[in-house]
Amino acid sequence: MARAAGVTRPLVYTLFDDFDGLLDALADREEGRALGDLEVALAAFVVDEDPDAALARGVRLFLDGVRAQPDRWNLILMPPDGTPARLRARIERNRAAILTRLEDFVRWGLERRGGPPGLDAELLARMILTLAQETARLVLTHPRRYSNDRILSFTTAALAAVERGQAA
Amino acid sequence: MTTTRRRPYAARVPLAERREQVLDAALALIAEHGYRAVSMEAVARAVGVTRPVVYGAYPSLPVLLGALVVREEGRALRVLDSVVPADPAGRHPDEVLVESIGAFLAAVAAHPHAWRLILLPIEGTPAPVRRQVERKRAALLGRLRELVAWGLEHRGGPHGLDEELLSRAILSVGEEAGRLLLTDPERYPAERLVGFARSLLAAVARGEA
Prior knowledge:
The structure holds two protein chains of two kinds.
Chain A: H1 2-5, H2 9-15, H3 19-43, H4 51-68, H5 70-77, H6 85-113, H7 121-141, H8 148-160
Helix pairs in contact in A: 3-4, 3-6, 4-7, 4-8, 5-7, 6-7
Chain B: H1 8-12, H2 15-33, H3 40-47, H4 51-57, H5 61-83, H6 93-110, H7 112-119, H8 127-155, H9 163-183, H10 190-202
């Protein structure tokens, strides 16, 4: 790591006590920044407008964040072998927190767009999160093949095909 | 005279059966504690035999793990063959998809250890295992794409949908359903997951077939 940073080993040790300390500091920083990216994407959901448009905008903002920081999102979405268990646990905790907020948005969206009525909101939120993660992995591994335009036109077309009823 | 006293268990259990026992024990160890928990010693303990008996079934740990992968892969492949119908002719696409999801989840529930290896890969999964799973996933995606093209045509839309992305979406949502069933079957029983798929499909617009 000293080599990669172009400094001496003792200098690295003056900044961090040990390797675990360095990893924790890195995790704190990356976690904070990743959550910042997600806040930007989730902010798209609170705007008082059409839920499908809000979701599409959230997806675009999320993918922009992923494209801007591929290293960070690779660590989160495709943790390499040897990723310490406590880092994995942190990723899991954050995912659960995001899921809770997504579920609130989905309940609001289902009501506002008028259905599909009776759809399991928790499973729908899980489905959206799974698809967002899978899409981000595609973007990370083949950024040109899976352009934002391609993903967003699919998202918009798929949402448009889902029936609406009487909006609340 | 003394030769008859050597390896008493090995003498009573046919080799093919012993190999199955050994692989079952290794699979249970991996599912519960990860790949690092597997050793010839640990497998011997789990089967309740001596180490030489395990070595009699497989000459080394890598050979044992290789045989395990081949066996589990084979099982999963056969199941997937029946899950994705070769010829869905005459049936409604939504019905075909809902039934496929149901068949897949039933397979997961029937062989949770094997599916855990595929859907929830554990730290330390050997590279050949990962590659095999990747190849299988790619092959499945190819078949799914053909079915999706057929389905969109027969149900009459939605038209103009990106078939590759739709196939990928169906595959990853199906995998996630399998994970939910494996990790929390009480909260996510197969009926709940299949019911969700059915209501969602019912709400997707269709036109002229």
